[in-house]
């Protein structure tokens, strides 16, 4: 009897265990099925984002990282982005993707590019991908719009536009460039990009904060020189992470110094003729904005102008005909100068450097510095039968235009003469190296002048050659993995 009961008990427990196992099994299957359904839905949503219309064709890549790795693949200096070219040939001039974790539409059609610039602040706004804003010290000021943007633009143009340069900067820039080149040349060889960066920051610091002690100015210069964009080249290399760390520390250091200068001015009530004062005074703005904008100017100026200057020198040296014509132009300026001790005048720069301006335009075109311009849609935007949903990033691929054989014959050839007789403006549908519309670079004339001054003092005072092994690559920004070195000696 008791054996029977025990058997019954055992089978009852076995049944109970089985039922429990079945339940766990069933629940696991249900949970797994639910997870699979949710993931599939998420994957489907990832590949087919919501849109109140027809999205441009394209693929969104892998979940989370999208097509970011493909976008960052390095390519040859004399190439157009394979990422863009491949997709253009597959999907046409407007396509969708996901880069930097943002749903993005890439625009390669020149008419659409101009339209994007035209609709700045109504349908599109300037916006940087998250990874960039982090290093540049994320702040709303970086994407200033409307009134604050207009105000900032006016200030930068007052200082760095033709009038400001002529009245307030040219003399110092000319002397500084002559002296800087002389000091670098004394060592017989130097990195042009690094030397150019130092020159630019040296000219800018007194314009930003004019009352720094010599020691503080030198400190700020070193901080700005430590900032670079090398970090974004690769997620996987240790040197990129080190560079990112250095850039973050540099950003922090620069902000601290600007904050200190701002606080001291507020306390003392002193007025100065510099950018910090002008941004502080004109409009009631919060301190964060003032500090960020003061900091942003050297960041925007340094690694742009110094790269174009380095490549301009390299192109000139590799093209003897260009070098001779350039030297002829600058020797003539010296010969015709009435006051032999005066530096380069505004009239000389504007009236007697026509070939130099053609050389600079050609270098700007070939360096093709900004592969894309970043914008974000403020509303759903209808373009060429497609809808770009509100909040999406838009990459305006202006760089394609500069290598388009339909616009520039033999586009990879360095040929300053192609600019002969042309109006050398900073913006046209074929020439968007300084952007366009309301965001057109306010430092364009400063950059041109700085390169012209460097070339003037170089070709009139020195014999020079470029290190043959130094190459440029694109990742997709231009970089010089081993620097860009010049061997130099005074003309005998
Ligand atoms: C060869 C040198 C340079 C190139 C190729 C260049 C290129 C550009 C481009 C393409 C933009 C527009 C970005 C966009 O629309 O998204 C821009 C904006 C800007 N650049 Fe430059 N730049 C150069 C030099 C400079 C210099 C020397 C300065 C300062 C002195 C400067 C200050 C700025 C500022 C403040 C902006 C933002 C303008 C705005 O938001 O309205 N840049 N630059």
Give a quick precis of the structure:
With 492 residues, the chain is of the alpha+beta class. The chain has helices at 2-47, 68-72, 82-91, 110-118, 130-135, 146-160, 162-185, 192-208, 214-226, 238-268, 275-282, 287-318, 320-336, 346-351, 354-367, 399-402, 444-461; strands spanning 75-76, 94-99, 102-107, 124-126, 189-191, 373-377, 381-383, 386-388, 393-396, 462-466, 473-474, 478-479, 485-490. It has a single domain (111-490), classed as Cytochrome p450, CATH 1.10.630.
Describe this protein with a few key phrases.
single chain, 492 residues, alpha+beta, Cytochrome p450, five-stranded mixed sheet, three-stranded antiparallel sheet, 56% helix, elongated, binds protoporphyrin IX containing FE, Cytochrome P450
Mean pLDDT: 90
Low-confidence stretches: none
- Say what the CATH topology is: Cytochrome p450
Note the gap between the termini: 122 Å
Shape category: elongated
Summed up, the domain count is: 1
Series of secondary-structure elements, N-terminal to C-terminal = HHEHEEHEHHHEHHHHHHHHEEEEHHEEEE
Which structural class is indicated by helix and strand composition?
Answer: alpha+beta
The Rg value, from CA coordinates, equals 29 Å
Strand order within the widest beta sheet: 2-3-9-6-4
CATH level 1 name: Mainly Alpha
Q: The biggest beta sheet, please? A: 5 strands, mixed
Strand content of the residues, in percent? 5-15%
Bound molecules: protoporphyrin IX containing FE
**Beta-strand segment tally:** 13
What is the number of helical segments per DSSP (H or I, 4+ residues)?
Answer: 17
């Amino acid at each position: 009897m008791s054996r029977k009961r025990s058997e019954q008990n055992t089978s009852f427990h076995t049944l109970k265990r089985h039922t429990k196992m079945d339940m766990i099994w069933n629940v696991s299957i249900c949970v797994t099925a639910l997870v699979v359904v949710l993931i599939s839905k998420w994957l489907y949503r990832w590949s087919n984002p919501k849109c109140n219309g027809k999205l441009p064709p394209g693929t969104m890549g892998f979940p989370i990282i999208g097509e970011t790795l493909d976008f960052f693949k390095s390519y040859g200096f004399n190439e157009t982005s394979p990422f863009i070219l491949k997709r253009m040939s597959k999907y046409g001039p407007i396509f969708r993707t996901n880069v930097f974790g943002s749903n993005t539409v890439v625009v390669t059609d020149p008419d659409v590019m101009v339209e994007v610039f035209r609709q700045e602040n109504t349908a599109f706004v300037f916006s940087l991908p998250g990874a960039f804003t982090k290093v540049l010290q994320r702040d709303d000021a970086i994407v200033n719009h409307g009134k604050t943007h207009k105000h900032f633009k006016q200030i930068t143009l007052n200082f760095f536009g033709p009038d400001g340069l002529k009245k307030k900067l040219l003399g110092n820039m000319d002397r500084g460039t002559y002296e800087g080149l002389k000091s670098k040349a004394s060592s017989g060889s130097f990195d042009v990009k690094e030397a150019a960066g130092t020159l630019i920051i040296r000219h800018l610091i007194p314009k930003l904060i004019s009352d720094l002690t010599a020691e503080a100015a030198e400190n700020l210069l070193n901080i700005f020189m430590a900032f670079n964009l090398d970090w974004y080249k690769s997620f996987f290399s240790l040197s990129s992470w080190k560079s990112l760390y250095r850039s973050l520390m540099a950003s922090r250091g620069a902000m601290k110094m600007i904050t200190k200068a701002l606080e001291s001015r507020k306390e003392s009530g002193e007025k100065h003729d510099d950018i910090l004062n002008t941004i502080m005074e004109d409009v009631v703005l919060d301190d964060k904005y003032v500090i960020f904008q003061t900091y942003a100017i050297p960041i925007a100026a340094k690694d742009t102008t110094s790269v174009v200057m380095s490549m301009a020198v390299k192109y000139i040296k590799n093209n003897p005909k260009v070098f001779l014509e350039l030297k002829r132009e600058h020797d003539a300026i010296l010969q015709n100068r009435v006051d032999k001790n005066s530096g380069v005048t505004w009239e000389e720069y504007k009236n007697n450097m026509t070939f130099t301006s053609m050389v600079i335009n050609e270098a700007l075109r070939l360096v093709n510095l900004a592969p894309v311009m970043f914008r974000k849609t403020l509303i759903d935007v209808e373009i060429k039968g497609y809808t770009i949903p509100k909040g999406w990033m838009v990459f305006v691929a202006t760089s394609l235009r500069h290598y388009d054989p339909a616009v520039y014959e033999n586009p990879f050839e360095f040929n300053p003469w192609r600019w002969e007789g042309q109006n050398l403006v900073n913006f046209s549908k074929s020439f968007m190296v300084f952007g366009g519309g309301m965001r057109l670079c306010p430092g364009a004339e400063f950059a041109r002048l700085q390169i012209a001054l460097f070339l003037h003092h170089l070709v009139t005072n020195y014999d020079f050659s470029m290190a043959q092994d130094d190459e440029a690559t694109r990742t997709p920004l231009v970089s010089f993995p081993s620097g860009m070195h010049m061997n130099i000696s005074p003309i005998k």
